[in-house]
């Protein structure tokens, strides 16, 4: 096995490249290895030289090899008789030879590398397990992201390593305890990264257990993640309650040597529910971080339970950490040294405080340092709140609002919805987020989601609580359901107006939703409300004009919403419905079949999300001329979407998993929508549309674009099995990407040849597709990239390119082309 740095590039697609001789190993060892790697979440390029056309190895295959991180050639009896295997091998050893004997040199180089001999092992399973462990070690697939300014933990890492002692038998449970912000999570991540590869796929790092377990189904979600991480993805589907999840985990872990980290645990129940009464396999290690010293005081006589108290950072390391954040160097300039040392003492050498203060003082003059030092000295050493507040006080009022919103509501949420709201509130979110990131108060992590240190989250929520510790009516944000009920029912007889509360996010999880019925007038009293998120309760809405500042409404798991008509929500920019259901109550209508948004006045709405509303049959839209994004997902009974206005601003429309959907009704052009299953997209109605995505909508029978569009750039169609043709694409003058997958009856794609600006065309698993491009007349650009996978009737169509194809590769019924049409 060889590895390469090429795969770390942004263009990398594959992690492992398998080179093998098909007749020798395709159905045996190679297949077992391939599935073991993919089951572990590794992206594998499995090549098969027998499916190739032509003699010359092409650029696409070379790129696949160069962009892979690890190469595994599987030498078998006839491997060396295949010219394709030898050509791949030549490229794998990263040599560019001009002589015809290049492969001989490649074989010599590979022969010098120590490999595995199958015959020396009892069976394929034993060897494949070793290969998998080695691959995971090299790829670092489960490694956790550690701060780039990692300082002063080497000694503690060594001490923890000795406590874990992974090379011995038995079962060990190791606990790190210490105050928030002292570096426990960072230390746990480093240790996990150090040893996770020794456990193969049987390792898992569960972050933020304290907060996640307090959410609705939080412990169940953590149980599912644990099972999924250790390779039991299939078993997670049936888990819907905690005790069953604990039982499933016990059954899954009893015969595996595992390494599991539970980060930020605050009680023994969380540990018990996540590992149950598991009898761990010898060699297993459970690692816990907590602020509570009493956690893990449990009776497990056969296990070693070991405690480790987090140590205070040394003066030298604290100086180094502060220097890196404030000056981008390990030591400060000479004229700052005394100030830096005093700041270190004033922060109590707490890593989180040093990081925040250093980021806040980044390249600031000495006067700012002296002023900050004075503020720090006023806060006692143990007063973390006072230290963190220095950074908070340096923010503008708009930036403070953004920080508090994230701390209270948006950790782990996509940033874009919040940005819509903040922008409409004139909080200047792009600048504000840049400031929060530069001051180390937040991070944007994978999938554009917000991340915040748990200590900062608690700090932000404490700021809100201190606005009035005894009266939630006088706090700017409410996220606790008991405080919510207290606030909405206070002075109910007079329904006094409230100008304090800006945001409400409440999930009535611990009681039946039918017990909580909210009248719209109970919420209307919060006249400064801009964010409203309610779950698992009944809402009775009626005419309202008293929420002029409301920007975002999110309703989920809601038993019933009715009497929507005549509501005027003039400033709402985001409207979200998720998992709307029904209740069995004769006093109320018991089924939601229709969301009639045409009765609502939503002139500023920008984003509409309708998710998992399984009983919804119709969605009616109007009075939304500023609507930019519509997303409808898993509404199983949704038949039609109706709209009665030209959408002047709509940029993205996504419909996914709506298996009954078959009508898109435009009242201003209803003559073209008479046939069920036939979707007509009128460019004059969808004037600014840039992206259309249709997935898993089997009732759609035909799709056609009518009228020229200059704005449409992306078109995705997936799992729409009964669509025979896709027409009118020539009207999409600026289309850049077209992706069509799993449309088994699609035969014709009309107009692709006319797409002069198409960058990317992907056709996958369209078994009936016979023709898409006429090379002799096409207007596709020179650098257009085409990927074809499992389109059987297109098998021979590459022969018609007459040398115009710059490169082509055939892999497992797949064709990948890079065109040069000039």
TrEMBL record:
Signal peptide: none annotated. The keyword Repeat applies. InterPro entries: Apaf_helical (IPR042197), Disease_R_plants (IPR044974), LRR_dom_sf (IPR032675), NB-ARC (IPR002182), P-loop_NTPase (IPR027417), TIR_dom (IPR000157), Toll_tir_struct_dom_sf (IPR035897), WH_DNA-bd_sf (IPR036390). Residues 12-143 form the TIR domain. Keywords: Leucine-rich repeat, Plant defense, Repeat. PROSITE patterns: TIR. This is TIR domain-containing protein. It comes from Corymbia citriodora subsp. variegata. The lineage of its organism: Eukaryota, Viridiplantae, Streptophyta, Embryophyta, Tracheophyta.
């Amino acid at each position: 096995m060889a590895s390469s740095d090429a795969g770390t590039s942004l263009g990398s697609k594959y992690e492992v490249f398998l080179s093998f001789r098909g007749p020798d190993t395709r159905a045996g060892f190679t297949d077992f290895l391939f599935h073991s790697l993919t089951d572990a979440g590794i992206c594998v390029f499995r090549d098969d030289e027998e499916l190739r056309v032509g003699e010359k190895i092409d650029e696409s295959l070379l790129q696949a090899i160069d962009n892979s991180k690890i190469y595994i050639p599987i030498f078998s009896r006839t491997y060396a008789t295949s010219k394709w295997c030898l050509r791949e091998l030549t490229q794998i050893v990263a040599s560019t030879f001009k002589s015809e004997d290049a492969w001989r040199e490649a074989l010599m180089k590979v022969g010098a590398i120590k490999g595995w001999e199958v015959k020396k092992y009892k069976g394929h399973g034993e060897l494949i397990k070793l290969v998998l462990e080695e691959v995971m070690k090299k790829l670092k697939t489960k490694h956790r992201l550690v701060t780039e300014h990692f300082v002063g933990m080497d000694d503690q890492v060594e001490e923890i390593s000795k406590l874990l002692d992974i090379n011995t038998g038995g079962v060990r449970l190791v606990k790190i305890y210490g105050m928030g912000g002292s570096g426990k999570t960072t230390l746990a991540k480093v240790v996990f990264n150090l040893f996770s590869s020794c456990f193969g796929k049987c390792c898992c790092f569960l972050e933020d257990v304290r907060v996640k377990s307090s959410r609705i189904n939080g412990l169940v979600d953590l149980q599912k993640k644990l099972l999924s991480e250790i390779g039991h993805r299939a078993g997670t589907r049936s888990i819907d309650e905690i005790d069953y999840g604990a039982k499933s985990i016990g059954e899954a872990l009893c015969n595996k040597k595992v390494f599991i980290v539970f980060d930020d645990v605050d009680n023994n129940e969380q540990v018990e529910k996540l590992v149950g009464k598991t009898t761990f396999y010898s060699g297993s290690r459970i690692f816990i971080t907590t602020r509570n010293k009493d956690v893990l005081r449990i009776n497990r006589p056969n296990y070693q339970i070991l405690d480790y108290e987090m140590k205070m950072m040394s003066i030298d390391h604290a100086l180094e950490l502060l220097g890196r954040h404030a000056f981008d160097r390990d030591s400060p300039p000479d004229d700052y040294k005394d100030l830096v040392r005093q700041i270190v003492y004033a922060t109590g050498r707490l890593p989180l405080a040093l990081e925040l203060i250093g980021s806040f003082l980044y390249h600031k003059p000495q006067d700012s340092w002296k002023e900050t030092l004075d503020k720090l000295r006023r806060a006692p050493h143990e007063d973390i709140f006072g230290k963190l507040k220095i950074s908070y006080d340096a923010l503008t009022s708009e930036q403070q609002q953004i920080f508090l919103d994230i701390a209270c509501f948006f950790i782990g949420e996509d940033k874009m919805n919040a940005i819509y709201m903040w922008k409409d509130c004139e909080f200047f979110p792009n600048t504000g987020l840049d400031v929060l990131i530069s001051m180390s108060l937040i991070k944007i992590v994978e999938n554009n989601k917000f991340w915040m240190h748990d200590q900062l989250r608690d700090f932000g929520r404490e700021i809100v609580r201190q606005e009035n510790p005894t009266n939630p009516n006088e706090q700017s944000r409410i996220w606790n359901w008991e405080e919510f009920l207290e606030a909405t029912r206070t002075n109910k007889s007079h329904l006094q107006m409230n100008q304090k509360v800006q945001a409400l996010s409440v999930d009535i999880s611990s009681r039946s939703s039918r017990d909580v019925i909210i009248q719209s007038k109970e919420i209307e009293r919060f006249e400064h409300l801009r964010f409203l998120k309610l779950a698992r309760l009944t809402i009775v809405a009626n005419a309202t004009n008293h929420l002029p500042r409301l920007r975002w409404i999110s309703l989920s798991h809601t038993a019933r919403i009715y009497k929507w008509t005549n509501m005027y929500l003039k400033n709402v920019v985001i409207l979200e419905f998720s998992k709307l259901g029904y209740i069995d109550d004769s006093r109320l209508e018991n089924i939601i079949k229709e969301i009639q948004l045409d009765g609502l006045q939503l002139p500023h709405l920008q984003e509409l999300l309708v998710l998992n509303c399984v009983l919804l049959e119709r969605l009616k839209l109007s009075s939304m001329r500023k609507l930019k994004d519509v997303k409808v997902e898993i509404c199983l009974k949704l038949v039609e979407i109706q709209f009665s206005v030209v959408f002047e601003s709509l940029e993205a429309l996504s419909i996914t998993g709506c298996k009954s959907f078959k009508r898109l009704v435009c009242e201003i052009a209803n003559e073209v929508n008479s046939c069920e299953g036939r979707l007509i997209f009128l460019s004059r109605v969808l004037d600014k549309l840039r992206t259309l995505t249709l997935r898993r909508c089997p009732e759609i029978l035909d799709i056609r674009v009518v009228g020229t569009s200059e704005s449409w750039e992306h078109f995705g169609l997936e799992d729409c099995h009964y669509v025979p043709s896709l027409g009118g694409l020539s009207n999409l003058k600026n289309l850049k990407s077209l992706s069509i997958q799993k449309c088994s009856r699609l035969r014709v794609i009309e107009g692709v040849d006319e797409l002069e600006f198409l960058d990317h065309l992907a056709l996958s698993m369209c078994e009936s597709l016979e023709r898409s491009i006429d090379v002799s007349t096409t207007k596709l650009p020179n650098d257009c990239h085409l990927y074809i996978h499992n389109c059987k009737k297109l098998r021979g169509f590459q022969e018609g390119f007459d040398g115009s194809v710059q490169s082509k590769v055939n892999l497992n019924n797949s064709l990948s082309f890079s065109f040069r049409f000039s």
